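Usage

Read records sequentially. Each one opens with the input sequence:
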Amino acid sequence: MARLLLRAGFEIFLAGSVLAGMTHGQAIPAQNMVSSPAVAPAADENAQPPVDTSDAAIDPASLIPDLPPVRPAKASLIGGTIGKLDRVRDRMTVQLFGGGKMIIAFDPRTNIFQDGVKASVSDLQRGDRIYIDTILDGGLVFARTIRLKTANTAGESQGTVVSYRSDKSELLLRDLLSPRPLKIHLTSQTRVVDNGRAASASELAPGTLVAVKFGPQQDGTDVAREVSVLAVPGASFSFAGTVMAVDLRLGILVLTSSTDHKTYEISLDAAAASVDNLRPGADVTVLSRFEGNRYVAQNVTVNPPNPR
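and closes with the structure output:
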């Protein structure tokens, strides 16, 4: 009997333990074991989005491919004054010294010099007197080198007389650096000089080469203080200096004088153009004749280099 009671008690204890375990397992359902997603914090309305600075140090100009080098080609020298200058399309219209116009292209590959010193496109202005080494590039006339001759200082000019009207005391001068004639008024105080002697304004015949110094402007007009006669048509001149540029096809020699350090354009005839060793950098002596609007070489001598 005692054994039966002990066995019955054990079975009751075992059954209670099972029921307790089942009851504990039902307290946490399986679906409650899945974690709920985290709730994001509320966004700050004043917060700024992050800035990507990974490309901030890149120069936009570095993304533009380099221009190809200027192809080697025989250059032609062109001289004239700038009529129009288009800095957007990189074009300029040049009034040629020999007459006519020409559209010339340029770009960052173009070498620009002002009085022998490296310059830039921003130094070019309408009316500037320039010499250009040009080549044909893709159907365009391209400026490989531009040499700019600076205009004279304010209050001074040099050119040839177009006319002189004594009734108005008005001198019309074609300045060497301007495409338009310059109108100058003379007064009783204007000094006219020819080879160091006093001269009369009536001697200012058309074609005479003169240098003019201006007085202050009066009522919008230019008044001359002094007019110096430099040359009359038919006069002979001798130049000595260094050749800046030469174009035998066009018959043009550009020379920088070793005397006054000015630049002169001299026309070459067939005989003068056939001189040996006539090239940029050569030291030359030129005997020329002034013809009113140009110097014409009669004889050109290439001097031997100075021994070191």
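Summary fields computed downstream for this record:
- Residues 1-6, 17-40, 60-65 have pLDDT under 50 and may be disordered.
- The chain has three domains: 76-149, 156-231, 236-302.
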